[in-house]
Protein: D-methionine transport system substrate-binding protein
Amino acid sequence: MHANYFQYLPFLEEFNQRTGSALVPVVPVPSDPVNADRSLRMLDGLGLIECTGRPGALASVADVHANPAYAEYLVAAADGVRHPDIQVLAAALNSAATRDFITTAYAGQVIAAF
Structure:
């Protein structure tokens, strides 16, 4: 499996344990720690995720402990996250065209969080 979608991180963790997989989120947050922290805290503030960083430390994807908005995650094998095909897929999924499609097709029942 090169990529898949998971609705929330606890299910991904359970899937990895049950199947011996090592899939990781290909999250639409910046890869540098400072901007990743800012993005995760913003998503937390919007109520899209629950992310509790440690006091005095930058938040990371590992600090996301709930996904009440049931945001979808693109996941990939840890060694494939930087593969060009996965990066192209992630870019397409986070594009303005995809946002416009979601807005039009789902008329507010699904909200693009990117």
Observations:
- Residues 3-79 form one domain.
- The two ends are 25 Å apart (CA to CA).
